[in-house]
Inverse folding.
């Protein structure tokens, strides 16, 4: 831990400088070193607390990724965040469009105000009045079933950011009402004659090809230009495989806090499975897989058999724990045995004898098993 490292460094520094000092000078020096160490400890503790608060409160945090594409996403988000510009975040389902929208909000001057989400996908196929009721709100008695006043998203987000998730799902009539609102930033609750002004910033997202929808007459061209002021494109997880382990470690840390676990790492076979899988559900699917594994494991590591069946039985990945077409006890036991041996070899840097001692297996049997499973040794 960071606090342990700081304490150790402070003690080592004191030891190095003990010789050749008077009692008074030595006391003053120790006092200075300890004061600095305590200040560093307080800073490290506060940073850790802030990180925990961020997870508990659902704040976005940093954009995780070392690939060129994700570094560019982070750069663009930081660049546009301090402005009032409309942002369109594009990417497939589960790529993290909402996370980027929150990141932009948290870096803006509006960060102390609400970040409000209007999920347009849930309004697909609904009437225009349903969209207006959700966006603008309504008064009691405005329509059948309106038993009390409802504050709409435009009002809830006042002073903050309104995130229009999957905006391409809106009907043409709802698109027209959204365009009218974006142009004037004024609205009336359904059932009210009082016009209100909404001080909000708009960030929208879509996983669809808006240009093609415009050509097909399914999305308004004028709304497209109004939304497409500044565009950020998110790649699929399969296109940024080197980020998978970074994201997995982040999600393990998050689940440790959420469930009171103390999981330290991924096993080598688990890493192989994560890296081989094609991730059709992108980052969201990876987070769900890690959450499942964190709940399933009874170890300090996530093993391959802790991962969901969707990964364990993926034939195309070449890492299936159960061979195609079979699910025999023998196959399962051999898969488990192979993982134990692989982990023992990894812990002992490929030293076959040391790995055998680690798991109480004789050298002769270790040689046989390593040859049987084709495992690498030093």
């Amino acid at each position: 831990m960071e606090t342990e490292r700081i304490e150790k460094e402070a003690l080592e520094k004191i030891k190095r400088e003990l010789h050749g000092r008077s009692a008074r000078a030595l006391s003053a020096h120790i006092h200075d070193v300890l004061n600095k160490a305590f200040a560093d400890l307080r800073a490290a503790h506060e940073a850790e607390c802030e990180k925990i608060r961020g997870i508990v409160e659902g704040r976005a945090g940093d954009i995780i990724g070392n690939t060129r594409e994700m570094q560019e996403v982070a750069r663009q988000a930081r660049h546009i965040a301090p402005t009032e510009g409309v942002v369109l975040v594009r990417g497939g389902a589960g790529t993290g469009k909402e996370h980027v929208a929150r990141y932009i909000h948290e870096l803006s001057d509006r960060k102390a105000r609400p970040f409000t989400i209007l999920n347009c996908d849930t309004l697909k196929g609904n009437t225009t009045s349903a969209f207006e009721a959700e966006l603008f709100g309504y008064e009691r008695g405005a329509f059948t079933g309106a038993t009390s006043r409802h504050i709409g998203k435009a009002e809830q987000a006042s002073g903050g950011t309104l995130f229009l998730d999957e905006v391409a799902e809106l009907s043409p009539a709802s698109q027209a009402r959204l365009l009218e609102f974006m142009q004037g930033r004024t609205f009336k609750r359904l059932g009210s004659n009082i016009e209100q002004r909404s001080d909000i910033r708009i960030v929208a997202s879509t996983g669809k090809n808006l240009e093609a929808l415009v050509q097909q007459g399914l999305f308004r061209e004028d709304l497209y230009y109004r939304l497409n002021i500044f565009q950020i494109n998110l790649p699929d997880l399969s296109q940024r495989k080197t980020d998978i382990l970074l994201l997995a470690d982040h999600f393990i840390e998050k689940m440790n806090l959420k469930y009171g676990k103390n999981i330290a790492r991924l096993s080598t076979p688990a890493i192989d499975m994560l890296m081989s899988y094609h991730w059709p559900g992108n980052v969201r699917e990876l987070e769900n897989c890690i959450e499942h594994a964190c709940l399933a494991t009874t170890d300090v590591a996530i093993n391959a058999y802790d991962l969901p069946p969707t990964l364990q039985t993926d034939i195309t990945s070449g890492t299936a724990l159960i061979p195609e077409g079979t699910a025999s006890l023998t196959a399962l036991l051999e898969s488990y045995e192979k993982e134990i041996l692989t982990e023992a070899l990894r812990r002992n840097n490929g030293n076959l004898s040391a790995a055998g001692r680690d798991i109480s297996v004789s050298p002769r049997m270790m040689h046989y098993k390593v040859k049987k499973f084709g495992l690498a040794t030093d």
User: Anything to note?
Assistant: The CA atoms of residues 321 and 327 lie 9 Å apart. Residues 314-322 have pLDDT under 50 and may be disordered. The longest strand covers residues 201-206. The radius of gyration is 28 Å.
